[in-house]
Design goal:
- The chain has a single domain, classed as Sufe protein. Chain: A (Alpha-Beta Complex), CATH 3.90.1010.20.
- It is of the alpha+beta class and about 120 residues long.
- Strands 1-2-3 form a three-stranded antiparallel sheet.
- Helix 1 (about 1-15) runs parallel beside helix 3 (about 95-115) and helix 2 (about 70-85) packs parallel to helix 3 (about 95-115).
- It contains three helices and three strands, in the order αβββαα.
- The chain has helices at about 1-15, 70-85, 95-115, and strands spanning about 30-40, 45-50, 55-60.
Length: about 120
């Protein structure tokens, strides 16, 4: 059910951005940094996406209060998953569920802001 909702959200974002490539990024010319925050296991997790002419160029994830050996260790993997997917539709990291969910939630909101 969650996968269906994520897919529906991605389709709505694409429709709102006028045109999407296969990776889920827009060719509408959106540029800039878009950030959002969600609550992880230890505290706030902030995701910042950098768009350049509708293409995802970079992702920064900050979760200074996440457990260093678990959620904190998962942040680089989650960043790479977002870059590879070109969207917030990622699998997450097993064992770091709260952090993964916070990253997904914050990334979805950041992509939604970019679509406005």
């Amino acid at each position: 059910m969650k996968k269906i909702l994520n897919t529906a959200l991605a389709l709505m974002l694409c429709a709102g951005m006028a045109a999407c490539s296969d990776s889920g990024s827009s060719s509408s010319g959106v540029s800039g940094d878009f950030s959002s925050t969600a609550v992880g296991y230890g505290g706030d997790v902030t995701v910042t996406i950098t768009m350049d002419n509708g293409t995802l160029k970079d992702v920064a994830i900050e979760g200074k209060d996440e457990t260093p050996a678990v959620g904190g260790a998962a942040l680089d993997t989650l960043k790479q998953q977002i870059l590879d997917a070109g969207s917030a539709e990622i699998d997450g990291v097993s064992g770091a569920t709260f952090t993964s969910n916070a990253v997904k939630e914050a990334a979805e909101a950041a992509f939604a802001d970019a679509a406005k």
